[in-house]
Amino acid sequence: MGRLLTAWILNAAALAAAAWLLGEQMSIGTGADATEDRLLTLAVVAAVFTLVNQLVSPVIKFLALPFIVLTLGLALLVINALMLLLTERITDLVGVDFVIEGFWWAVAASIVISVVNAVLASLTGTRR
Question: Is the pLDDT of residue 1 over 80?
Answer without folding.
Answer: no
